[in-house]
Amino acid sequence: MSMFEFAGHQLDVQQGRLRKGGQDVRLRPKSLALLTYLLENSGRVVTKDELVSAVWPNVAVTDGSLSQCVTDIRRTLGEGAAKLIRTVPCRGYALDEKLVRRSEALLAPAVFGPSGRLSIAVLPFTVAVPGGRHTWIADGIVEDIITALAKIPTLFVTSKSLSFAYRDKAGRLPDVARALGVHYVLSGSVRVSGHELRLTTELVDAQTGGIVWADRFDRHFGQIFAVQDEITAAVVERLKSELLPQSRAAAVIENQREFELPRNQADQAALWDR
């Protein structure tokens, strides 16, 4: 688990908790995710595009949204933020690493999270072309998995905003798991060819680096959201069987949307090209 100390504040990454003088400090979720990402990448210039991709994955936002979050952070941190966060014209932002103290738990990530629950983080799945038109499909599946797992009372799941802050950092799973305070990490990849989708998933024990479970799903696109729901259900059931063999807890995937098969090839192509 990572703990950052800066500008008279402390940030517990696992809990997503910002404090000052022992008191909780309120910060909007997106602003907190942005601050966390800057802290994790202190000492270098983080471009605007990188920040937008990390905090607003697959969502079109303006520079104004990013600037508003930075302003929110600076206002919350007070005078200490002036030297901490530097605006780099036409590029992005840089956080002075000399003004940040980072501490790590001496022990490896605990198997159990808060309240004695088993702990897991679901990282954004990689795609062949990062930021391309297929990213929304991968992100949708990850979001559904996080939502489904969060409904299991005996499982602690890190929030989407924290997990997505580690996009493209799956190569450092032990570090990511330690920062998020979890024992298990689920990662995956999505490849698309025509109207065929192949998704691979991998559950890793962050303490040992060993693969607990891995699988592959090949699907043909028809009802795209139905395919996402099918894959999500399959992954969640496998995770439950691997992590909670004695538990009867059920992950309920609620689907309040109604989908119809495209009436013709043109309709199907339009849905696919979203």
Automatic annotation (TrEMBL):
<keyword id="KW-0238">DNA-binding</keyword>
<feature type="DNA-binding region" description="OmpR/PhoB-type">
    <location>
        <begin position="1"/>
        <end position="97"/>
    </location>
</feature>
<dbReference type="InterPro" id="IPR001867">
    <property type="entry name" value="OmpR/PhoB-type_DNA-bd"/>
</dbReference>
<protein>
    <recommendedName>
        <fullName>OmpR/PhoB-type domain-containing protein</fullName>
    </recommendedName>
</protein>
<dbReference type="GO" id="GO:0000160">
    <property type="term" value="P:phosphorelay signal transduction system"/>
</dbReference>
<dbReference type="GO" id="GO:0006355">
    <property type="term" value="P:regulation of DNA-templated transcription"/>
</dbReference>
<dbReference type="Pfam" id="PF00486">
    <property type="entry name" value="Trans_reg_C"/>
</dbReference>
<feature type="domain" description="OmpR/PhoB-type">
    <location>
        <begin position="1"/>
        <end position="97"/>
    </location>
</feature>
<dbReference type="GO" id="GO:0003677">
    <property type="term" value="F:DNA binding"/>
</dbReference>
<dbReference type="InterPro" id="IPR016032">
    <property type="entry name" value="Sig_transdc_resp-reg_C-effctor"/>
</dbReference>
<dbReference type="InterPro" id="IPR036388">
    <property type="entry name" value="WH-like_DNA-bd_sf"/>
</dbReference>
